[in-house]
Amino acid sequence: MLKVQQVSKWYEGNRGVHKLDFEMQRGEIVGFLGPNGAGKTTTMRMITGYLQPSEGVITIDGIPIQDKGRQARSKIGYLPETPPLYGDMSVQSYLKFVASIRDVPAREQKLRISEMISRLGLNGREKQLVRSLSKGYKQRLGLAGAIIHNPDLLVLDEPTSGLDPNQILEIRQLIQEIGENHTVLLSTHILPEVDALCNRVLIIHEGQLVLDGRPDALGGSMEDGFKVKVEVKGNREQVLDVLQAWGKVEVEPLASALSHADMKRAAREQDLTGVLLTGASNEDFREELFYVLSAARLPILEMKKESLSLENIFQQLTTRETGAGQMGDQAADAVSSTENTATGVKVDHEESASSGDKAVEAKDTGGNQS
């Protein structure tokens, strides 16, 4: 669906991003992570056609966005961190406006608008002015505008920023539902959101892609050895002697993971020993460990595989220098105008055109939406 091939962007001799190379398949929800200034915004603006790469090729469903921009952009929906809505429009008129500039056929617009209102939970607010909506409902409306033309690729920039916990859960559920029929690129600083929503993670640092993988497999792939935390019912010295005699793991004694009440009850019966075991490689040794302790008549009360969290991985990868010397997203922000990306209109700071004039401009420019 999306191919980013050896893409770089320079700003006045400074590198914004450097030789990015990744693909996204249909139906994937991919988390796009990186610290501030890493190049996320630059990358998303190139993917959505608002910036031209200095080198490399970006294709949407096989269509090169540099050569066939309008055709490629028709397959993209984009929701920036702050949805670019028009406060003096009603919910319904805003969606009609977006549907028109996104070339939704006139005969389908009424049905499509009704579908968006129902799907995004905007029922009963069709006539309400956009400026009177809560932030959560503005996010819903922004999502509706981003998908009203049924794009293949949806790009979301911090979609839950500034929302309360209930609103965050609602928007996450909507993204999961949307991801069933769309490919989604999700930029966020909320790492648990990636664990909850994404089946793949990209991490960018100083303009370079430093990680590409599945969230559930990242921790083990970066560990020096397979790790297991074990709670054993047995005398501490005996447990340590058995494990050290086994010789296949490094043994680190731990405080008990049991609750205070369980510890007191178990202590009355027999000693408890907690250990962290690290193998020499990433090979899973849990089955063999079970038989080793079983043979020594040492019952395992708890066994848990240990791995790096996404937070740990992110910190490791984004605190080391890559030597690229990028300006990153600050440069992109400095050179780009204020962009009304929900409608595809680039709005200059001094522009005072009416909404009707904006619609004409958007139509004349092909309704470019990033």
Automatic annotation (TrEMBL):
Signal peptide: none annotated. GO terms for molecular function: ATP binding. It holds the Pfam family ABC_tran. Residues 2-231 form the ABC transporter domain. Residues 346-364 have a biased composition (Basic and acidic residues). Residues 324-334 have a biased composition (Low complexity). It comes from the Bacteria. Gene3D superfamilies: P-loop containing nucleotide triphosphate hydrolases. The keyword Transport applies. Residues 324-370 are annotated as: Disordered. InterPro entries: AAA+_ATPase, ABC_transporter-like_ATP-bd, P-loop_NTPase. Belongs to the ABC transporter superfamily. This is ABC-2 type transport system ATP-binding protein. The lineage of its organism: Bacteria, Bacillati, Bacillota, Bacilli, Bacillales.
